[in-house]
Structures are given as structure tokens and as C-alpha cells.
Amino acid sequence: MKNARTVMVVAVSIALVYMASGCAILKVGPSDEEMLKDLLSTYVTSLEEGSVEKHISVYSKDFVGTNGESYDEMAGGLEEMLPMLEDWGMEISTDETETAIEGNEAEIGPIGFEFSQGGIQITLFTTKEDDGCWRITGSEMQQ
Length: 143
Description:
- By secondary structure, the chain is α+β, with helices and mostly antiparallel strands.
- Helix content is 41%, strand content 31%.
- Strands 1, 2, 3, 4, 5 and 6 form a 6-stranded mixed β-sheet that branches.
- A hairpin with a 2-residue loop joins β3 (98-102) and β4 (105-115).
- The longest helix is centred in the N-terminal third of the chain and has 19 residues, at 2-20.
- The radius of gyration is 21 Å and the shape is globular.
């Protein structure tokens, strides 16, 4: 009995020291797969809602778009573009979307976009940045 109590006191003490030092050994965060699923969900819902702030939140400052546009150029055009998507009858499909993770990089696609004038598919390229968050660093569009 005395040994079990001593072991318990030592274990609790070690856990308290780790927690106080900022180490989260007892807390398990979301997996990369879950974080990328959330990124895709935010990407899609922000487009459907027309939310510039929500949409830009999933992009890296290092983003380079399909046509070479920078993060600032892409962000600057969102306020004009997002309202037009509804006018164009946009529908987004992720039914065939797959995520392929390789280290700190992942590819998410194809994401299907249907408009009254036709459709496109987009693949997103993401990177797990220094803060542990996955963000979009590039994209590729196919018609």
C-alpha cells in the first residue's frame, strides 16, 4: 500500500511539473488529418458564406496562386470576387476530394466548383507552418 501511494504521489508531481513548464504531455491535439479536414471545411464554408475574413484565415502569407498571385493580391481581390460567386450559381463538391500528406506538406483535391457557365476543379497545396497550423500555400486549377 505504501509503495502504491508513493508511486502515485511521484507520478502526480511529475505531471504537475510538466504542466507548469508548458509541456502538454497529458493533452493530445487533433491529428494532421483532422486539422486538414477542418481547413477544407473552413475553405468551403467561407466561400459559401462569402466571408473574406474566414476565407483568408486558411491561407499562408507565403501563398502563391495558380497564376502566380501573392497572398496580398489574392486577399485584395476577395472582397470583389466572393459576392460574384453566388451570382454565378456556385456549387462546391468535395465528394471526390482526397488528402495526401507527406511530412509537413499535403495536397487536398480535387475540389469541384460548378457555375452556371461551367465547372472547374481546384487542388490546394498546404504546409504545416511553425505554429503547428496547416495553411494553404498554393493552388492549381483544372478545367
